[in-house]
Amino acid sequence: MDAKEAHRFLGFLADEQNAVTLYGALAENEKNPKLAEVYRRMAKVEQNHVDEWAKRLTSSEVVIPPYRPTLRTRLLCVLAKRVGVSFVLPSITAMESKGVNSYTGMTNIGSMESDEQTHGRMLTQISQTVRGGIEGGALAQVEGRHRGTGGNALRAAVLGANDGLVSVLSLVMGVAGAGLSTHAILLTGLAGLMAGSISMALGEWLSVQSSRELFTKQIAVEAAEIESSPQEEIEELSLIYQSRGIAEDKARMLATEIMNNKETALDTLAREELGIDPGELGGSAWEAAITSFLLFALGALIPVAPFIFLTGTTAIFVSILFAVFGLFAIGAATTLFTGRTVMFSGLRMVIFGLAAAAVTFTVGRILGVNAAG
Prior knowledge:
Blueprint (H helix, E strand, L loop, with lengths): L2 H27 L3 H27 L11 H12 L2 H19 L8 H21 L20 H25 L4 H47 L1 H14 L4 H13 L1 H13 L10 H20 L1 H4 L2 H22 L1 H4 L3 H31 L1
Helix pairs in contact: 1-2, 1-3, 1-4, 2-5, 3-4, 4-5, 6-7, 6-11, 6-13, 6-15, 7-8, 7-10, 7-11, 8-9, 11-13, 13-15
């Protein structure tokens, strides 16, 4: 085994070790015992991969370094514990897809590639399960056909802060380019912060509240259909389970059993047919609004803060410096769901953000000069 191959295999080993840690964290923090058992089985498969790579490296006398979880792995484990498993599922699904791509085209790796593909399908289905919900025998078919995953709260949080930072940075640089006083720049920045935060909060409130009202109406229609046409609902539910890979007779038996219990029939049909959790209805509109307000304001405050304490050119340069650090941090945070390196994602966000600020600064300078003339 040459040095290049050894380095590559050590990378595979580290990826599998991180996967074991992640699935262990999911199993430990998952409240649904059935899903927790699925995560434990997945961790066991990943541990087999770890053992296989370690065996190959050891047989070639390659020194295996002590395992240290990556920063991304540690952060995802903390989020799974503090916020919930469903919060980090999309990020881990993306990482699993990257693992599949790493093994593509390789030979003599046994079932590792197919194992990773299966895990990718399982995570996708579980993400849909968390959002839409399947129970009982359907869970055993989690490796079957699947639909796309739902939204990602982490992604929304990161992008909300990014919107605030980039938009207000551009606004501040625009008026700075026009030659306005420090006081005027500060007032403009704070006005942009408040206006943007309120707009984001209102838009989020309207979006979530409209969804809740629509979901309520759909559930009411579903309840009426259960009473008037129970056999049709059994057929629809049976077809849903069949589309996920369950045999027709088992799907029909499961659907009939669910419909016989009227206490759970509406809940199950709402989840399966409509993709709605009746207990959540898309979440709280006020919680979404407040969160959007705070995230946008937090990002927007970064380029504005220096003008509170500093003046003139110094304030402008410090504002840009703060923005660079903020943009890099936001870009680094996106690696949780993109799989890119921290340096690539961070620098990319910095370049795009500064480019937007440069454009508005130039426009402000041109308009300011023309207005002065």
